[in-house]
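A reminder from the course coordinator: this example appears on the midterm review sheet, so study it carefully.

Given structure:
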C-alpha cells in the first residue's frame, strides 16, 4: 500500500429543516463516490443534536486501484434502520472533490409523513412562521411560545432569527391540539398574544405570521 492511497479525506455538514433552519438530529447520512459502473460507499454517520455530521474516508476507498484521481461525491439521508432515502444529492454530484468538503442539507418538513410513526413527528415544527412589523421588517430576538389553549401551558418556544423566522417544536410528539401564541421581548414584556385558538392537527405545522408595531 502506498502512502498516497492512505491519505484521509473529510466531509462535514449540517442537516436542517428547510422552512425553519431547525437542525435535525438522529438521521443517518451515507457518503458515496459516483462511478460509471458501481458507486463506492465511503462512510456513514448519524447527525448529532445540532444536526451536524462528519464523514471520513481514504484515497484507497475511491481511487479504483489508482485509476480515479479525485472523488465525485454525493450524500443520502436515511431513516435509521431502514433503506428509505429521505434526501439525496445524487442529481448534483460534487465532482473532483477536495480533501475537505462541506454540505448543508435542507429537508422539507413534508419529507416526513405519517408512515414514519410518532417518533418522527418531533422533526416537524408544530408552529412556524415569522415575526415582522406591519411593513414586513423582520424582528429578531423575540421569544415565541406555543401554549395549550385549554390550560395555558407552554408546549414549545423559539427565538426569532435575523429574518424574523421562528419554528416551535414540542419536546415530545403531541396529538391534535388547540394552540395559542405569545411573543415576549428581550426585556421580558409580552408584546403579542393571539386571540383565537389555532388548530394543530397532530401532523402538519400551523403557520402563523405575526405583525407587530415597530420597536423603539
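Designed residues:
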Amino acid at each position: 500500500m502506498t502512502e498516497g492511497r492512505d491519505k484521509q479525506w473529510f466531509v462535514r455538514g449540517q442537516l436542517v429543516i428547510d422552512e425553519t433552519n431547525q437542525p435535525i438530529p438522529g438521521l443517518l447520512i451515507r457518503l458515496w463516490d459516483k462511478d460509471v459502473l458501481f458507486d463506492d460507499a465511503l462512510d456513514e454517520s448519524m447527525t448529532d443534536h445540532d444536526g451536524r455530521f462528519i464523514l471520513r474516508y481514504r484515497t484507497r476507498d475511491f481511487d479504483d486501484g489508482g485509476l480515479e484521481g479525485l472523488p465525485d461525491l454525493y450524500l443520502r439521508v436515511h431513516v435509521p434502520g431502514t433503506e428509505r432515502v429521505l434526501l439525496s444529492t445524487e442529481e448534483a454530484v460534487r465532482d473532483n472533490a477536495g480533501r475537505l468538503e462541506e454540505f448543508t442539507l435542507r429537508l422539507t418538513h413534508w419529507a416526513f409523513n405519517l408512515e414514519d410513526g410518532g417518533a418522527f413527528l418531533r422533526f416537524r415544527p408544530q408552529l412556524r412562521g415569522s415575526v415582522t412589523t406591519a411593513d414586513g421588517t423582520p424582528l429578531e430576538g423575540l421569544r415565541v411560545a406555543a401554549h395549550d389553549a385549554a390550560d395555558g401551558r407552554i408546549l414549545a418556544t423559539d427565538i426569532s432569527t435575523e429574518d424574523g423566522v421562528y419554528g416551535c417544536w414540542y419536546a415530545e410528539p403531541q396529538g391534535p391540539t388547540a394552540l395559542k401564541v405569545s411573543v415576549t421581548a428581550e426585556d421580558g414584556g409580552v408584546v403579542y398574544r393571539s386571540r383565537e385558538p389555532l388548530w394543530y392537527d397532530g401532523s402538519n405545522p400551523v403557520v402563523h405570521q405575526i405583525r407587530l408595531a415597530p420597536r423603539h
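The mean pLDDT is 85. Residues 135 and 154 are 29 Å apart (CA to CA).
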